[in-house]
Amino acid sequence: MKAPSVTRRQGLLIGGILFGLITLGLLIDGGGQLIGDVAGVFSVSYLASAIRLTVPIAFAAMGGIFAEKTGVINIGLEGLLIIGAFGAVASLYALSATPIGANIWLAFVLAIVASTIVALLFAIVCIEFKADQIIAGLAVWLIALGFAPFASIIIWRRTSSPSVGTFSTISIPGLSALPSIGPLFEATPPVFLLALAVPFSWYLLNRTTFGMWIEASGEDPKSLDTAGVDVRKVRYAGVLLSGVYCGIGGAGLALNTGQFVGSGDTMIDGRGWIGLTAYLIGNYNPVGAFLASFLFAGLEALQLQLQQIAGYDVSSTLVGIIPYVAVLIVLTFVGRTRMPSAAGEHYDSDE
Amino acid sequence: MEPDEQDERATTGTPPAVHLDGITKRFPGVIANDDVDLEVERGTIHALVGENGAGKTTLMNVLYGLYEPTEGTVRIDGEPQTFDDPGDAMDVGIGMIHQHFMLVDTMTVAENVVLGDEPTKWGGIVTDRERANRETQALADRYGLEVEPTELIEEISVGEQQRVEILKTLYRGADILILDEPTAVLTPQEVQSLFGILRELIAEGKTIIFITHKLGEALEVADEISVLRKGKLVGTVDAETATREELARMMVGRDVLLEVDKPAASRGDLVLDVEAVTIEDDRGVVAADSVSFGVHQGEVFGIAGVDGNGQSELIEAITGLRKPTDGTITFDGRDITTDSRRSRVSAGMAYVAEDRQKRSLVMEYELQRNGLLGRQHLRPFSDGRLIDWGATGEYVDDIIEEYDVRPADPTAKAHSFSGGNQQKFIVGREFERDPSLVIASQPTRGVDIGSIEFIHNRLLELRSDGKAVLLVSSKLDEVTQLSDRLGVMHDGEIIAVVDPDEVTEEELGLLMAGERPDNLDVDGARVRRSSV
User: Fold this and answer.
1) What sections of the protein cross the membrane (chain A) (predicted)?
2) How close, in Å, is residue A64 to chain B by CA atoms?
3) What are B366's strand-pairing partners?
4) How large is the greatest C-alpha to C-alpha distance in chain B, in angstroms?
5) Is B102 an interface residue toward A (CB < 8 Å)?
């Protein structure tokens, strides 16, 4: 696979400039006080919170890459994140009779298993029964969107869970003591997992034999089949990996917050959809997808903090749309994404 | 009529490399292969010829393990074999080079060669690309196949892609190579280089089975030629002594006129005038660059060239399926550059599209409704509001009878017909419109030899009737035989307009590859428009 093209980098650059422009736009009639307030938003702790918000988006995005590169478009990422988040909190709640220390990891693993099982069902429907991938993916989202709050009501009598506990922060000895950037090395396990998952995913796709099969499966499954590799197995693996990644992303988000929120669009709140956009902007490259995810998460963190600056009469709804407007603008500038040629197509080996 | 050239080979000590012993393959309702006996000696090239649907590919799929024979035995080097899948066939050294290349465009040459059987490092997880490159290069050097292991498939020519396909099978240790219609997409020069490679391979002790319906190629490269017709082996002949006429008769079961008998042209008024037309393809890349030519009444203007040099876009612009970015197109003296497709049809432009399933037929419609397509708004098929199914039915019945479409069932859906019969139906529908201009793009692609003869004759009849015919074909013999003037397209330009009776195949090949031979009048290119 090729590295992100120059236009793509420019796209991300434009996104970066957007940060500045949006800030500037808010300044126009704000005066000096606002400059100071907004400038105060950008700090190392802001960066740390942006990275925390990147976790669910980037994991969903990388999961989506694995599925789609094998030829199965998984637009159910949002649903899988919901299952991951709910699964983690519900498991931890059920286990909470015992001390939290080891259980939170057990809950984390169970959430991944739950999300992967749903992904497996999606894979079976798409690969064995040749269902339309887009419709099946929508079904995953809608089912998760209905199931998680429903189960919440059964367990907790309301759509959201009580607080069940969070991952504790891990500090990397030495690095976290560094001046100014130190706080970046004090984070919860999902953040560190993300730091490992990005290079791991890139390596898996670009250097391993399995990665080669993934690419062949999405580009030209017949060639792969003739070469004696079972396309079905590769596609299952790709979709299951998307389940695992979304499980990590959803559980990571929930166990950072310590609670499952099932009202409205649930606590996932469109992050799976943003993840889908992120990997398209990143042109199916995990590193690019991570950067795009980080951009969105950064804008999200920005709008959250802007809303908290007291004393300005800007509608919070208006501030809230900043990340989405940014997505639209970046998509416009980012140029053409090359989809895998056989993405979305069923493969029938006995043809 | 049955020729009787069954090869009487003296029994020798070594068994043949491939022995298909009484192979019968039945599908529900069809016998694709009927008791076929085929022997191929080690170190020889064996051509398998036959019309579309004669059972060539089925037979090879049996040999390659894709199908299990209903009856009969496959023997490799004398040993009976049963293959459950192509993997088993590969294990005993049988490799298949498919007509449609099995290559992943976004991967490199070497990655494609080793795909599925990768050299690995670090415990078998990571592909050892250096070794893959090295081994590909070594194999390529050994058999004289020129490729660059690190290039991407999408960046190399079709001829090179075919060499990669051959390397893939060699890498897997194939001793017996099956090539399915390998020359369909090659220029004459590339064909010659392929034949060179095949000779190199048999010199190294490989055995080659070469599926084709081009008799000339079979005669040129093969040692022996087997002919299949309607699933049966008609005979095996020695390529040294066989003739084209003899082979054609064996294939079709009757005498076939191989050379087109063309009366002299009587050129009339200019019908289509294309002037400095520039067209962009879907990606916005210039596909045809300032192309000019004209087609007159009573002449066939041919356009030759390797697929993908702008012919498709040019035809789409003329027929109204694509907007040119520059230039004018005049039809019967009227500027139609921006006219709709519908008004062009109404004005008398008939179009036999290159992709019949995509452009010419609705596969899920029966012939009746397909026959109406394009004229559903015109009399006598419609009074402007309702369709007159009676008139449509008569019209379709006439086409079916006149153009010998089989089975003669106007209520059968298009997809249930063979390619040749679909094409005959389309040709009938378009030609019977009483058009003033017929645009025929690859009119005989994937069509059997009997139907080709028929379509060619119909085109020449239109010409005699004073119609203008624009013919695009990547088959050289077709365009040279039918055309009165022949434009050669390369890289979006008509680089020369030649007289097909005077130009040699070598010169055409060079033109198609973008080189204008010294001895060819350069003016041929300059006076592109001998019209005006």
Assistant:
1) 12-32, 44-67, 79-98, 104-127, 134-156, 187-205, 276-297, 309-334
2) 19
3) B413
4) 77
5) yes
